[in-house]
Amino acid sequence: MAFAITCPLCRRRIADLTERCPACGGDLGALAGLVELADRHFNDAVRAARRGRWNTAAEHLAVTLALNPADAEARQLLTKVRYHQDPKTLPDRLWRKARTRLPYGERLPPTLPRGADLRRLLEAAGRRPAAARKAE
């Protein structure tokens, strides 16, 4: 990644981060390693977000922003991750996931029912296959 950085030894701006400062010849290897680590965590966050693992993505982005607070892409992705972590949408997302993973999920309503109805619907949906087997 090409970006402007200030050499911590001579305080001159450097166009690209290299192993040595072109102005003073100081060793910038440790700084380059930190930038590489931040990039690695950002890439891990992108992979986690693509898989829908929002908490993992948020953790990687926290490390990225701790190492490089000026990373605009990481801040933008964190905003998207925080949206998906919103507790108001969590019950609906869990309901959709349950409908796809439960063996009888297609028999459940597409939207999340109220608390009292939920227990009754889950029990009824789970009993139907057993009742059908007894009749055979």
Characterize the structure shown.
The chain is mainly α. 60% of the residues lie in helices and 3% in strands. It has helices spanning 29-50, 54-67, 72-84, 90-101, 115-135, and strands spanning 5-6, 13-14. The protein has a two-stranded antiparallel ribbon. β1 and β2 form a beta hairpin. α1 packs antiparallel against α2 and α2 (54-67) runs antiparallel to α3. The longest helix has 22 residues, at 29-50. It is rod-shaped.
Give a summary of the structure in a few sentences.
By secondary structure, this protein is an all-alpha fold. It contains five helices and two strands; from the N terminus they run E-E-H-H-H-H-H.
Keywords, separated by commas or semicolons:
136 residues, mainly alpha, two-stranded antiparallel sheet
Task: Give me the count of strands.
Answer: 2
Percent helix, as a range, is 55-70%
Segments where pLDDT lies below 50 for 5+ residues?
Answer: none
Distance between the termini: 66 Å
Largest β sheet strand count, sense and barrel closure? 2 strands, antiparallel
Regarding quaternary structure, how should these chains be classified?
Answer: single chain
Cα-atom Rg, whole angstroms? 25 Å
- What spatial form do the alpha-carbon principal axes imply? rod-shaped
Summarize the helix and strand pattern as letters: EEHHHHH
Number of helices: 5
